[in-house]
Design brief:
single chain, mainly beta, Jelly Rolls, Tachylectin-2, Chain A, 4 helices
């Protein structure tokens, strides 16, 4: 009888228990830390803090979700934090964001069985962290379908000297859409770790390129679909098209794991995006970066030679394509040149940016290098098959005597014959007192292919290629018309481009045809194709000794101005407001100046970062001619048919777009303006 009663009562007791106990908890409270405190969490030991620091800027995909996240960064002793216990429901997944310090097995998110206290899963940040990715949040998704219906809890455990950040813990994933969002998030965040880096980066671009507002982009300058770009790479005329590759971090508008972006064009004005061409090397020890390099066509195939920068170690690799679109790494990306190929006087740490060419039936590559005494050098290597290379000699070497012209490490060399001479372009780093820290120079001489040396130049004759604030790492190609065309990165190191707020950063200069004049001076001028996009010609003729509002406006313009300067300053202001504030380009006393300070919003208060000048001689008839290309944020000035160039970005071009002329003396101006309309 007793037994029977018990049998009846027990199920009733269970029902009652279920009714009395609060609802089953599926989602842990404050898993997103947006409460801005640790409510919902129990400290088993130590104290963690809630932070709302944003790692990188608001456009980066590696930041926390919403505002707050948990960090153990400030903790002075071990921290163990326990979540509320929850029942695993929904589809049986748990997901969260994790970031932190490298190589820390002691900073973990752990999942426990609430009944047995046994560990089920754990995750450290170590698995994801390469040198470049510290503090980038990674989304983790745990498939726990075997534990559906079980009671579990999470602990955040930091028992070592490193730290951990955690955010957006979700223990209740109900729909396929939610899961997919998290899983694609994994792909995007782990792009650099997956087997097919190229595909996942491409996937990421396709998913997110629509987020870039087209009205924030340049209209006729090469830039990335989104994210960051720097140096132009692999310039080549191939398969009847201009091919431009570029250093690219598709994931964020900051420098990062370098991929090679790729665009092609039939006229170098309108460009088409192609799939990413090269991904960085990656293995279980972390990720690398595919640094700058060049391209060459051999028997219809296209080869890229570039630097793999793996954990600070730089070596040269090859990639090949039979269609100019899809590339595969030769020998799986094994080095064709590494530090063992360097002469004893080269520092093995800096060895990059190979530029390949053919001379007398032999392949050559010029590569940027640093001597053991820290000054720069460009080294020449030769090969019969692109894979086996022999060192020939140093093309040029810096020394203490060259420091104010050439600084230290020489990046991005390009060596070619032009109008009867050999010309070396390079980008020396750390020139003392240089407005951009790093500069670009050209050296004209005669190559001795026996010794590898460029001969017959004088230090005093070495000149800057461009006198602006945003011109670096130029490279050239020769096209089917035999033109030598130069393109550079139109931005500078050490200055965060303001367009990061729009999700992208960096662009390339408009292509310039280059020549040497009789005295060996470099002449550069925008390729003529841009003139096909000129519309709405307006002309203006004035003689004035004050400020002239031309009534002409626009921020995407092609301008031609001729004037006869008098005493003092004579010139033009672009991106001007009604008072005549804007970017001033003017002649005074043997120099053409560019002053962008009005258009910089106080960003760089020092004059040396806003005011630059290039030495010029007046034309024979006493005039100065300026050709100026504007594209929303950029000003490219070509003086006297390309005798000097000044390239710069400005930061407020959307705000004002007037064109103003000014003169201290009675100057005569003739101005032609065309809108540039490139869709
Ligand atoms: C020049 C440079 C190169 C290097 C690349 C990395 O701007 O520093 O030397 O290959 O950028 O993105």
């Amino acid at each position: 009888m007793k037994k029977k009663l018990l049998l009846i009562l027990f199920p009733m007791f269970l029902i009652l228990l279920g009714a009395c106990s609060s609802e089953i908890l599926y989602q842990i409270p404050n898993g997103d830390f947006e409460a801005a405190d640790l409510s919902g969490w129990t400290s088993v030991s130590g104290e963690a803090t809630i932070s709302r620091d944003v790692y990188y800027d608001g456009q980066s995909k590696y930041i926390q979700e919403n505002e707050q996240f948990l960090t153990t960064k400030e903790a002075t002793s071990e921290v163990i934090l326990k979540s509320a216990s929850f029942t695993l429901g929904g589809l049986g997944y748990v997901s969260f964001l994790i970031s932190g310090d490298a190589n820390s097995e002691d900073a973990v998110v752990v999942l426990y069985d609430a009944l047995t206290q046994e560990e089920i899963m754990h995750e450290t940040y170590t698995a994801y962290d390469g040198d470049l990715f510290r503090d980038n949040f990674i989304r983790v998704v745990w498939d726990l379908s075997d534990y559906l219906g079980q009671e579990l809890y999470l602990q955040i455990e930091d028992t070592g000297s490193n730290y951990l950040n955690v955010d957006a813990l979700d223990t209740w994933i109900e729909t396929d859409e939610e899961l997919q969002r998290y899983q694609s998030n994994v792909l995007e965040r782990l792009g650099f770790m997956t087997d097919n880096l190229l595909l996942s980066a491409e996937y990421y671009l396709n998913l997110y390129n629509h987020t870039i507002d087209p009205t924030t982009r340049y209209t006729y300058h090469v830039m990335g679909e989104m994210g960051w770009i720097n140096d132009p790479n692999g310039l080549v005329y191939y398969n009847d098209e201009y091919n431009v590759f570029y250093q690219h971090n598709p994931y964020a508008p900051v420098w990062g794991p370098m991929y090679w972006g790729h665009v092609t064009s039939t006229d170098m004005v309108k460009w088409e995006y192609r799939p990413l061409a090269v991904a960085p090397m990656v293995n279980s020890a972390g990720g690398g970066a595919a640094f700058s390099g060049s391209a060459i066509e051999i028997d219809g195939d296209l080869y890229l030679m570039y630097t793999e920068n793996w954990q600070g170690y730089q070596y040269q690799v090859l990639s090949k394509s039979t269609d100019g679109i899809h590339f595969s790494k030769i020998n799986d990306g094994a080095a064709v040149l590494d530090d063992s190929d360097l002469p004893f006087y080269a520092n093995p740490v800096d060895f990059r940016d190979p530029n390949i060419f053919v001379h007398d039936g032999t392949y050559y590559s010029v590569i940027g290098s640093r001597q053991i005494n820290d000054f720069g050098q460009v080294l020449l290597f030769q090969s019969d098959n692109l894979v086996d290379w022999d060192y020939v000699g140093p093309v040029i070497q810096g020394s203490v005597n060259t420091i104010y012209t050439l600084g230290y490490m020489f990046e991005c060399p390009d060596l070619f014959e032009l109008d009867g001479s050999d010309v070396l372009l390079m980008s020396p780093q750390e020139i003392p007192g240089h407005r951009n820290t790093h500069g670009t120079v050209y050296v004209v001489g005669t190559m001795n292919y026996q010794t590898g040396m460029l001969e017959g130049w004088n230090l005093s004759e070495i000149q800057e290629i461009d006198y602006g604030f945003d011109f670096y790492a130029p490279q050239t190609l020769v096209d089917n018309q035999g033109r030598r065309i130069m393109i550079a990165w139109m931005q500078s190191w050490n200055r965060a481009p303001m367009t990061g707020q729009f999700g992208w950063a960096g662009a390339l200069t408009f292509p310039r045809e280059i020549h040497l004049d009789e005295s060996g001076h470099l002449i550069q001028y925008p390729i003529q194709e841009i003139e096909n996009y000129r519309e709405n010609l307006e002309t203006y003729d004035a003689t004035s000794s004050s400020l002239v509002q031309t009534g002409i406006t626009g921020n995407t313009l092609d301008l031609e101005l001729t004037f006869t300067p008098g005493e003092g300053q004579t010139g033009i202001t672009v991106f001007a407001d009604e008072e005549g504030n804007g970017t001033h380009i003017y002649y005074e006393d043997g120099y053409v100046y560019l002053n962008r300070s009005d258009n910089m919003g106080g960003r760089y208060p020092l004059e040396m970062y806003n005011l630059t000048k290039a030495p010029v001689t007046l034309n024979q008839d006493g005039t100065i001619t300026l050709r100026i290309l504007l594209d929303r944020y950029s000003v490219e000035v070509f003086v006297n048919g390309g005798e000097r160039a000044i390239t710069t970005t400005v930061y407020q071009s959307h705000a004002t777009d007037g064109i103003v002329l000014f003169s201290d003396a009675n100057a005569h101006f003739t101005l032609s303006k065309w809108d540039l309309h490139v869709e």
